[in-house]
Fold Prolyl 4-hydroxylase alpha subunit domain-containing protein.
Amino acid sequence: MAEAGNSGGGARKRKMADKKDAGGARKLAPNSNWPAIKSKKNLQITRLKDSDLFTVPEFLSATESKAFIRAAESIGFVHQGSLGPTMGEAYRDNDRISVNDPVLASTLWDSGLSKLFSDIKIRGKVAVGLNPNIRFYRLLIYLSGSSKAKASKSELDSQKDASMEPLVGGETVFYGWRNNVVAEVAPAEGMALLHIHGDKCMLHEARNVSKGIKYVFRSDVAFA
């Protein structure tokens, strides 16, 4: 699932400021070996809460999605945790790669996102592109009572086997007034999930993965 926030791991609700590039995430220079991305002319928006929350099915094709996973796995993920809500950070427990790549960001934007945002404004500002800070997340089966960094060999072997299984769990849940559920978005291959950030950011959480592996490709839509 691709995910982008409109800027202007475990089941933990969050609306704290994300501390960017924290937790020992792997930071990389631009990579010329990313898969090619074809232009999409017929992308459609599925609105879940006006322009504050929507999905774009098949933003990446199945072939493109699998190719990005292979590319990310060849680079290698680094486990990332966080200090948690008590320290003002969103809860995190995932594997992560971070790359600053303006070419990749521009390619993704020009492949179809720019047209979808042509009529969307935030406080009079228009979307101008994707932030070149691209992140890849890998969310594995939740290991109750132990961190992934200290997982046993049998648990790690089980996680490798999980890559061959259909994904179960990993839904992203958004909450509104009095914690009423606004939307529950199940992961889907190649789907883009976009939601507003800043003071209008909805409380949200990622549910635990109970089977398989969830991959997320993330950036932020910049407005000016």
Notes: The longest strand covers residues 214-223. The chain has one domain: 2-30+37-223.
